[in-house]
């Protein structure tokens, strides 16, 4: 499938599936860390390090999308 805008990557989605599955596992870990971090923030809002952990967890949750976009962009048309 080629789009009319010259951004055609027909097999990009299929080739990056193994990497996307790995990053999906990382995002599940990110969700668990995010929930624990939010609970710790509610218990003790003065802990600044917990906020940093929650931000890292959010990036882990977004990992599958970043991996798929990066890998697809590396495949020439």
UniProtKB/TrEMBL annotation:
InterPro entries: TAXIMIN_1/2. The chain crosses the membrane at residues 19-40. Keywords: Membrane, Transmembrane, Transmembrane helix. This is Transmembrane protein. It comes from Tagetes erecta.
């Amino acid at each position: 499938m080629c789009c009319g805008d010259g951004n055609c990557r027909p097999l990009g989605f299929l080739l990056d599936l193994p990497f996307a599955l790995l990053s999906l596992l990382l995002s599940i870990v990110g969700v668990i860390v995010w929930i624990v971090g939010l609970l710790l923030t509610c218990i003790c809002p003065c802990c600044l390090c917990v906020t940093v952990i929650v931000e890292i967890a959010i990036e882990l949750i977004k990992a599958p999308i970043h991996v798929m976009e990066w890998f697809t962009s590396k495949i020439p048309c």
